[in-house]
Design brief:
Blueprint: H1 14-26, H2 31-40, H3 47-68, E1 75-85, E2 88-97, E3 102-108, H4 113-127, E4 133-135, H5 140-149, E5 154-156, H6 163-168, H7 170-178, H8 185-198
Parallel strand pairs: 1-4, 4-5
Antiparallel strand pairs: 1-2, 2-3
Helix pairs in contact: 1-2, 1-3, 1-8, 2-3, 3-8, 4-5
């Protein structure tokens, strides 16, 4: 991760930047918390610089981690929750495999059939093919995407079967509260993608 070109014009060593970005996305810490932790290690910087590092390098690190990933399981647990950004209702779609690994998170304006198909296409791309089984609630949009895109995949809508994915939303809820809500759709998607990769 310490390509020279990536860190051009940054006066701190790559390992310090990587450590700060990892702390932010892996633990429930603010930029000021990380400023303090770095100071304890003899690294003097500001929370504003740390915020810039997280915004710039977080998505790049997440992309590299995903490229190195060995693959997900054959069962996807899928769910969506409502989030409000600047007063607008949006839907955060999430999929985890049977081992609890986050396959993808995707913020969308709607939760209709087209939105479900868009999310399923992302999942198929990341999985490299159709999963053996998907587990969802009874939202009709999932049925539409299942029938049109992966009709051979088992689709389980049994009550409580999807608790694994519903519970995986909780860390996001905690971070959302501590960050005093997401400021924009772009900022939320950028953070959540890196946060999922670092978990």
């Amino acid at each position: 991760m310490n390509s020279t070109r990536m860190y051009k014009r940054h006066r701190f060593p790559p390992e310090n930047i990587q450590y700060a970005v990892w702390l932010y996305h892996r633990f429930n810490l603010s930029h000021r918390d990380i400023e303090y932790l770095l100071a304890k290690r003899g690294v003097t910087t500001s929370y504003k610089a740390i915020r810039l590092w997280c915004n710039k390098f977080g998505p790049q690190y997440a992309q590299r981690l995903r490229r190195k990933h060995q693959g997900y399981g054959d069962t996807f647990f899928i769910d969506e929750v409502c989030v409000r950004i600047q007063g607008e209702r949006l839907y955060l779609w999430r999929a985890v495999d049977q081992d609890g690994e986050v396959v993808d998170v995707f913020l969308q304006i709607r939760r209709d059939g087209e939105a479900a198909k868009r999310f399923f296409k992302r999942l198929l791309g990341k999985h490299g093919g159709e999963p053996r089984k998907i587990v969802t609630d009874k939202l009709r949009s999932y049925g539409v995407a299942h029938r049109e895109l992966i009709p051979e995949t088992i689709h389980d809508t049994t009550q409580y079967a999807n608790n694994r994915c519903e519970l995986s939303h909780e860390p996001t809820r905690v971070r959302e509260r501590d960050m005093r809500k997401f400021k924009s759709m772009h900022q939320a998607q950028r953070f959540l993608g890196a946060h999922a990769a670092a978990m």
